[in-house]
Predict the 3D structure of the following.
Amino acid sequence: MLVELAKSWPAPLRDRLELWLIATPESADLARAFSDRWTDGKPTLVLSLDAPGVGTMIRVGGRGPSAAFVADVAKSLWLPHETRPFVRSDRAAADWKVRGVPVVSLSGDHGDGPIDPALLAGVSQLVHESAMRWGKPPAAQPGPGASAARSSQNPG
């Protein structure tokens, strides 16, 4: 999935947003190794993927504004999702939160279920859209009667 995410990342965004796609068995090591990068003032959001595309919906895990932000992006993209707080098994979340970096878990069902290609594509879209919106400066709120943008690539 990471290769597909990297291949589908739009070239014009590479100048505006820095996207890192890293597979690691131990997120604590990664968080420690990159800890000095997260203090440069750039908007940073860690999305931890766990069994994406398995099951019937995307589970958006976390607390606070970053989790609410990603859940709102999922809702605006009409993706089947549910939100839940982190549980003790979300080690990646704990590793990053200790360093003050907002982290959200995107997970599917655990088990031997098949991967749903449409749901996997939805997770990919959610990662892209969340990254683009997170890195975008806040815009003025739409006026009365105006609708919010459905995506940053297709406003209106």
Notes: The chain has five helices and four strands. The first strand starts at residue 46 and ends at 50. The beta strands are 46-50, 58-61, 81-84, 103-107. The chain has a mean pLDDT of 78.
